[in-house]
Amino acid sequence: MSIDIETAAKVAKLARIKVEDDALPALAQEFNDILGFIEQLNEVDVEGVEPMVSVTPMRLKRRQDGVTDGDIQEQVLKNAPDAREGFFAVPKVVE
């Protein structure tokens, strides 16, 4: 896959990045270099390789996964400009 100048301009626009017209060829080349590197990575044989979290063997810390309300409703609503019946009150924006 090759990225041309028009595609680079479109990606920059979608990313909300201002890129001058004279910098678009360099940006397109950078995109092509990145895609080339990804293609190189796809050529690596990873059959039988376990996914790793880190290069050093370690276990992730685990905790009990329990759903709670946090018991801090008053603290959360303390700085709210307008709170009613235990909830944030906001202006109506849809009619």
UniProtKB/TrEMBL annotation:
<comment type="subunit">
    <text>Heterotrimer of A, B and C subunits.</text>
</comment>
<dbReference type="GO" id="GO:0050567">
    <property type="term" value="F:glutaminyl-tRNA synthase (glutamine-hydrolyzing) activity"/>
</dbReference>
<dbReference type="GO" id="GO:0070681">
    <property type="term" value="P:glutaminyl-tRNAGln biosynthesis via transamidation"/>
</dbReference>
<dbReference type="GO" id="GO:0005524">
    <property type="term" value="F:ATP binding"/>
</dbReference>
<keyword id="KW-0547">Nucleotide-binding</keyword>
<dbReference type="Pfam" id="PF02686">
    <property type="entry name" value="GatC"/>
</dbReference>
<keyword id="KW-0067">ATP-binding</keyword>
<dbReference type="InterPro" id="IPR003837">
    <property type="entry name" value="GatC"/>
</dbReference>
<keyword id="KW-0648">Protein biosynthesis</keyword>
<dbReference type="InterPro" id="IPR036113">
    <property type="entry name" value="Asp/Glu-ADT_sf_sub_c"/>
</dbReference>
<comment type="similarity">
    <text>Belongs to the GatC family.</text>
</comment>
<dbReference type="GO" id="GO:0050566">
    <property type="term" value="F:asparaginyl-tRNA synthase (glutamine-hydrolyzing) activity"/>
</dbReference>
<dbReference type="GO" id="GO:0016740">
    <property type="term" value="F:transferase activity"/>
</dbReference>
<dbReference type="GO" id="GO:0006450">
    <property type="term" value="P:regulation of translational fidelity"/>
</dbReference>
<dbReference type="GO" id="GO:0006412">
    <property type="term" value="P:translation"/>
</dbReference>
<keyword id="KW-0436">Ligase</keyword>
<comment type="function">
    <text>Allows the formation of correctly charged Asn-tRNA(Asn) or Gln-tRNA(Gln) through the transamidation of misacylated Asp-tRNA(Asn) or Glu-tRNA(Gln) in organisms which lack either or both of asparaginyl-tRNA or glutaminyl-tRNA synthetases. The reaction takes place in the presence of glutamine and ATP through an activated phospho-Asp-tRNA(Asn) or phospho-Glu-tRNA(Gln).</text>
</comment>
<protein>
    <recommendedName>
        <fullName>Aspartyl/glutamyl-tRNA(Asn/Gln) amidotransferase subunit C</fullName>
        <ecNumber>6.3.5.-</ecNumber>
    </recommendedName>
</protein>
<keyword id="KW-0808">Transferase</keyword>
